[in-house]
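Quick one: structure for this chain?
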Amino acid sequence: MSQYQPLKSFIGLLIVSLFLLTPCLSVEAVLNVGDEVPNYVRSQITGIDLHGQDLSKSSIAGATARDANLSDVDLHGTVVTLADLKGSNLNGINLTDTLSDRVNFQKTDLRNAVLVNMIASGSSFAGASIEGADFSYAVLDSDDQRNLCEIAEGTNPVTGIDTRDSLECSDRGIGYKPPMPGS
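Got it. Here's what it folds into:
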């Protein structure tokens, strides 16, 4: 162990603490000249209506977006980490290839959502509606995966994948593994 390791650990902890303890901004993000997509990092966007917008590759990290309408929004390739989406309408949202760790998805409407390759470790899905959602290759906590399997039903209208299959649910304790793309 190097003599600087304790200092590196302290600096890392300090940076994370500053991010978590800095109050959320109260402004809505807007496009500035030269920006391709708006940025909602640490924004207070509770109740916002972004229905049907293409926000791919934007960021809503650390944002508070409770009771927001994000239905049919394209957020593929985004960073959603540490966001609070409790009670939001995410029906038909595209969260493919997102970093969505430690996100509050409690009581959200995730029906028909595409969550392929999403990293959602440390997130909470308690009370979420997931009929027709596609979680293929998503990284979920094992408790979340088991709880979601108890309510999983339907087929995603975009991908054609059954929700139970995408969550690798099984009635016999043997997980289902869909084939890798291109195989």
